[in-house]
Automatic annotation (TrEMBL):
PANTHER family reported in the protein's UniProt record: PEPTIDYL-PROLYL CIS-TRANS ISOMERASE D (PTHR47529), PERIPLASMIC CHAPERONE PPID (PTHR47529:SF1)
The name this protein goes by in its record: Parvulin-like PPIase
Transmembrane feature ranges: 12-31
Annotated PpiC domain residues: 255-375
Primary location recorded for the protein, binned into one broad class: membrane
One Pfam family it belongs to: Rotamase_2
Record's subcellular location: Cell inner membrane
Family according to the record: Belongs to the PpiD chaperone family.
Species of origin: Sphingomonas panacis
Amino acid sequence: MLSFFRRIINSKVGVVVTLAGLIVIALMFGLTDITGLTGGSGTTGSGDSLASVDGTKIGSNDIRSRAQRELEGYRQQNPTLDMAQYVAGGGVDGTLNRMIDTIALERFGHKQGMFVSDRLVDGRIASIPSLQGPDGKFSQDAYNRALKQAHQTDAALRADMKQGMIAQLLVTPLQADTPQVAKALAQTYAGLLLEKRHAQIAMIPAAALATGPAPTDAQLAAFYKTNAARYSLAERRVIRYATISGKALTTPVTVSDAEIAKAYQTQIASFRAVQRRTVARVIVGDAATANALAAKIKAGTPIDQAARAAGLESATMTALEKSAIAAQTSPAFADAVFAAAKGSVIGPVKGTLGYVVGRVESIDDRGEIPLAQAKTQLTEQLTTQKKNDQLRKIHDALDDAISNHATFDQLVSQQKLTAQVSPPVLASGADPAQPDAKVPPAAKAIVDAGFANQPGDTPQLVPVDADSFAVISTAKVFPSAPPPLAEIRAAVTRDFTMERAAKAARDVAKKVMDAANKGTPIAQAVAAAGVKLPPVQPLDKTRAELTANPNGVPAPLALLFSMAPHTAKIIAAPNNAGWFVLWLDRIDKGDARGRPDIVAATQADIGKATGGEYIQQFVKAVRGTVGVKTDAAALAKLKAALIGQETTDQP
């Protein structure tokens, strides 16, 4: 489950990914709780010191905050991820190490005379698309909203951006050019991809073995305790929310005749008489070609086919008025189009860029729409506008109250809203107590917001759909934990008996393996096992087939490529289904001398890996140069606090 972010956390080039995206992530997603770093010593954040970099201490509170925000970011990819899984997957270690690396690179850069100007930071902020207004220019309002959402200050963000930009400038050149790898070396590794192994595999299914007597209460309790993680429910949250919808507004909306008349005059251009044409046209460079093309179209050849035959392309002007067609072709062509009937071929007519040949595809003429006829449309439009205005006023009032530190209860009371409380739900919105119930799409936005917040955080306003929004507050968090044994006794009993059968299957598999390693053919060893088992199957695979599997390499195949010829080994099947016995007959060595494509691809792959190693070694050297110290005990204390910081009550 955690592999998707383990790959980032443990990646040798992860520091580049982090640094390159830091300045955008901080604003767009609020994943990092930025604290300014000034001078050559001091402390980032507060709480116990987890590490020091060139005299700058990194506080536990800062890493705690960053870990919370990174977890929220990872939940965008895996909504069921909780803090316990994040910590177990190395998330906190990765957060601390990335911060150490970034500070160390900044300190090293300063010692080499590298500094980032305020003007460069200004330009980088202004270039972020999400901070640009409708006119495409930097919006101070959008920037302020992003800072507020990310709980940042302008000064702190700019300090962190400077830090990240220096680090990025230092490490990016190390992977800018892929290191050249000798062809002979790549050819050797490429040969491994073509290696083929011929083997036999036997399955010893647990279902073929006796499960034994029913387990006792003590045995079940011990098994449940040992395997608690197997039965753990993902983190669940109770969310308080109140929805505000235009359909539920109680204040009546009325639209007067005067308002309708005013709207009609304001939108008079939409109701005037209009003539539109849809025309397919081709622009031709010379008159002779244009005349030949027009004649061919008049003879019945579709205009697009006739154009392609002449090495040209046709284009369609859809439902345009006369002035728009004239602007794209010429006034004379537009006059001819509007004087012609549907299906008529126009031209050639002299245009701005040559000669225009066209065909009238459709005619869309509409007379003037009088006020009486437009009244129903305008009434609906104005009613919607007034409801939206009411919603906007409520939204703005709630937003102002939240800015003044109003609680969820106060918000509900002030606006006379109906508060609701969700059951303990997963990040997907599903209720484990009702697994078959469907999650309404509107509920997903509320759940997402609830999982982005923590108990005690400021209430949030979230859009639910085009006609409504909600105010939410996270009421309670239930960390990942197994339900009581009594509730899942049947499942635990099933797993207990399956595991007992799987252990019996292992004993049989080991017996078969030992016999095969002593010279007994594997098929004969299986037949002599004393249990009715599936027949032995051949297994022939190349290493390239394994690396091409997008779902990863199955464990038996990974074992196969670590074995010596004429040996047998055993490995467990997934989910206590039994055991496999593998016998390797022979290995056909691969030869990549006749496969330049594989050699070239291997050269590129090794080059990329080498670039990552360069970065890793450079950052390690920088750490040693500036001086880094870490406190393992303080880090372990923080991890324990993160896992146990929320209530462990079960509903």
